[in-house]
Amino acid sequence: MIKSFEDLQKLGQANTDTAMRLVGEWSKGWQTIATEMTDYSKRSFEDGTATFEKLLSAKTIEQAFEIQSSYAKRAYEDYVQQLTKMGGLYSEFAKEAYKPVEKAFAARR
Length: 109
Known about the structure:
109 residues; mainly alpha; 2 helices; rod-shaped
């Protein structure tokens, strides 16, 4: 009876440890993603503001068109780059968050 109670306690402790590691990985992952999205939003806003200021100082329609075209190209390229980066972060986040669960199942086999 005592032996099975000790086993039950160890199992409960192992499950609690696994859950805490899982929560820790989730927290780190979401924090990384949130920080990256905040940085991207800030960069995008600053670039848009700078472009708007350039547009206000444009002397000709051709100059304004060139400023706008350049901005559109930069914005698109930055967006695609950010999308790729976020995909990698989400993929890494899923892998890291699953590791504690994977280890727990491996330990029970």
